[in-house]
Amino acid sequence: MAKGVVLVVDDEAPIRDILSFYLKRAGYQVLTAGHGLEALDEMSRSRPDLIISDLRMPEMPGDELCKRVKSDPATRDVYFIILSAMDGTASRIGGLSLGADDMIPKPFHAQEVLAKVESTFRLIAMQKEIKRQNKELTSFQERVREEMELAAALQMGLLPKLPGEAPCVRYTHRYLPAAGIGGDIYAVAPLPDGGTAMMIADVSGHGVTAALISAMVKTSFENQVRLGGEPLAWAQGMNEDLCRSTLAEQFATAWLGRLDPATNHLRYVVAGHCAPLRIVGGAKGGLQRSEVLRGKGFMLGLDPQLPFMEHEAEFLPGDRLVLYTDGLVEVEREDRTMLEEAGLRRICAELPAGAEEAADAVIAQARVFNQPAIFGDDVTLVILDRKP
Fold first, then answer.
1. What is the pLDDT of residues 112-150, one digit of tens each?
2. 102 and 182: one domain?
3. What is the CA radius of gyration of the chain?
4. 248 and 120, same structural domain?
5. What is the side-by-side order of every strand in the sheet holding 290-292?
6. Can you give the pTM of this predicted structure?
7. What is the average per-residue pLDDT within 343-364?
8. pLDDT over threshold 50, residue 281
9. Are 101 and 30 in the same domain?
10. DSSP letter, residue 274
């Protein structure tokens, strides 16, 4: 099998014959042409890997042939060496400025030409390998992109449909994953007694792995809610599930709540998560005061024996609950400051009445505060309004 295809272009037959002899003996397939037009005609039938062309020829000289070859997208990658009787640096620069890849001065030595051809084909082989790898990389990136899009669509399917309602709350969300897919998740579920179960969680890390664990968190939450009980039991069960199903370095922060509409009490567990804001009368819009539903607790997935603590707060008709993940308030600006909980409370002090409009206002004002910095982490915001 030939090492490669070389097209020799020269108006002098002895030079074509000499080059053909040595190149064929070295294992190359050789094509010949007497001038540029013949070379183009030959290239219409077969594609050489390398062209060795004289500069001065009738019909079409080597410089014009080089321009034609290098300007055609189909042949621009063909390696082109010019043979020229004009020696010197100026001649070499002139030849390379035409688009040629190299030059060999005349008169030449056959061994010099062979050495140049050998090194050229090593370079051609490397270029082909790089192109092959780039093609494989592009194909792989396309498959990854398609799979990420599918995974993102599936993850969006895990989020509650909007606008959402439970027996005693109306809610909406704004979900902004940092990489198209992320580790934030939330759920709102009606309970048999007319109450409402709610959860927001933030899984460590980003991307597909975090999204997979977030799906596990949501499934575990729904299973625990079906078993009944209070948020303390849900947190304990979810913690055991995650410890059993994830690696040691993987964990999730979460906030779990259960609203009893008969008593207007919200029982909740904080598992290392951002404390939500309760806005008194917030569903009516306008200027309102907020309070932070504080609590301390370990993250989920660290150790199956970790204790959790249940807290209680009022959630009255007309009140608003703001749940969020830390990506919303922990964007570092150029002056090294962040929105933080205090900034979010300032934003939430006066919001529109509708949950959709309120969610848009929070995100918009957070973006304005952060400028020119952008959200670099997954961001989830959930607005829950207690029905009158």
1. 889 989 998 998 889 889 989 999 998 988 888 887 777
2. no
3. 35
4. no
5. 164-166, 169-176, 379-386, 320-324, 277-279, 290-292
6. 0.70
7. 96
8. yes
9. yes
10. P
